[in-house]
UniProtKB/TrEMBL annotation:
Origin organism lineage: Bacteria, Pseudomonadati, Pseudomonadota, Betaproteobacteria, Rhodocyclales
Keyword flag Transmembrane helix: yes
Name of the protein: Heme exporter protein D
Subcellular location: Cell inner membrane
Membrane topology classification: Single-pass membrane protein
Organism the protein comes from: Azonexus hydrophilus
GO cellular component: plasma membrane
Family assignment from sequence similarity: Belongs to the CcmD/CycX/HelD family.
Primary subcellular site in the record, as a coarse category: membrane
Transmembrane segments: 12-32
Keyword field: Cell inner membrane, Cell membrane, Cytochrome c-type biogenesis, Membrane, Transmembrane, Transmembrane helix, Transport
């Protein structure tokens, strides 16, 4: 496809807001998802360690 100018490229034949908005939302999701997974992993590991400590204390008594 050929555009006469960069502004025509950005406008995408009248669908620019949808196209670039979709790219933006996708890029944002691709940035946020690994961060959320890493935080969730740390929280899960910490919870499992606390649970393991609690279980080992209850078996010692």
């Amino acid at each position: 496809m050929y555009w006469n100018s960069f502004s025509d490229f950005l406008a995408m034949g009248g669908y620019g807001l949808y196209v670039w908005g979709s790219f933006g939302v996708t890029a944002l999701a691709m940035v946020i998802e690994p961060i959320a997974v890493a935080r969730n992993r740390k929280a899960t590991i910490a919870r499992l360690k606390r649970q393991l400590r609690a279980e080992s204390r209850s078996t010692e008594a």
